[in-house]
Amino acid sequence: MSAITRVYAGRLAGLQVRGPDLDPIGRVRDVVVNIRPQGQPSRVLGLAIELVNKRRIFVPMLRVGAIEPGDITLTTGSVSMRAFQVRTGEVTIMGDLIGSKVHTDDPELDQLHGKPMEIADVEIERTRTRDWVITRVAVFGSRPKFGRSPELFTVPWQHVHGVTAAGVGPTDTLAEQIAEFDQMRPADVANSLHSMSSSMRHQLANQLNDERLADILQELPEDHQAELLETLDIERAADVLEEMDPDDAADILQELPDAKAEVLLELMDPEESAPVRRLMSFSPDTVGALMTPEPLVLTPQTTVAEALALARDPDLPTSLASMVFVVRPPTATPTGKYLGCVHLQKLLREPPSTLVSGILDPDLPPLYADDDQETAARYFATYNLVCGPVLDEDKHLLGAVAVDDLLDHLLPEDWRSEGLRPDPHHRKVTRG
């Protein structure tokens, strides 16, 4: 049975939610969305799940593997058990939108123009980038006399008015700011936060969802990273660290007092904290401290077609998607014996059925975990790469280092606060 990619939110209410092992976790009670300014796609952030003990938790939509007619399956059994609370800038479909009044300017429904209508349900759809967005709204027209059922109309989301980031009604300044952030790249949001007062940064950080806050924290100067993490309650701070790339989480933890860093590591899921602990064991000025333990790692029997499919993952940073690493099992770092690597350009030039083991680059040397940052810089300059393998002395792959992470450490500590120098040939320059 094929998974559902378009559904009305009302159909999700009450559905059983299962982990990847199909064990039941709870039931859907609501759908959490972020309302963007008019004309912009409004994203579905996640689901409010009620556990057996009646406690409600939040599960991000990216953790949803498949929606079937009878239940929902998650991609991971590891979910935050923190009690669900709606944050500023978040709206629930069942709790806030259904039953509220809106109006429309849909040219196909001119008989409804200027009339208040009641939201009956909201349709959401999965995009090619795996995001879920609001696409249409089912609304009731004016109620007829003599107890007849009201007529139901379907209106495209871009023609529905009266819904803001604060829900249905007047605009909330903080909610609108968060909605504006949702359209920006994390690096640009970080630049905006840097220019704000400390109290405003704290307010916004407390209202952003964990995944979004993690992306933004990774782009902030180190002193602001630690400052914002300190403002969160200890359980939420651990949840945000779990959403971060392991190398970035390790960098932040090393800025905190040892005792607090250890408490946060203990609160994190063991699968998430283990690679962070490994990275923290390396000297800060070595390649081992810069690398990510989650590159694209394949076995020799993987085909070019399979490798390209993995490289297309929209959640994978561009630098890490540029290279696949081939090893003997196990493929989790530290891996079995490292065999070699294949650049994305090479994959694009080979037949889809070719095995990656037959097209390995025999001449590219690796980096080693105890190499210094200058060695890594010379490596990237010599071989014109943006990503390179990192091995231990026994030829096991420990991870990969990306040139953007290297630059982050080689530039002056305050480089983020200075922003980018304007390009006279462009009206606006943003960091990607």
From TrEMBL:
The keyword rRNA-binding does not apply. PROSITE patterns: CBS. Keywords: CBS domain. It comes from the Bacteria. Gene3D superfamilies: CBS-domain, MgtE N-terminal domain-like. InterPro entries: CBS_dom, CBS_dom_sf, Mg_transptr_MgtE_intracell_dom, MgtE_N_sf, MgtE_transporter, PRC_barrel-like_sf, SH3_actinomycetes. The keyword Ribosomal protein does not apply. SMART domains: MgtE_N (SM00924). Residues 291-357, 360-418 form the CBS domain. This is CBS domain-containing protein. The lineage of its organism: Bacteria, Bacillati, Actinomycetota, Actinomycetes, Mycobacteriales.
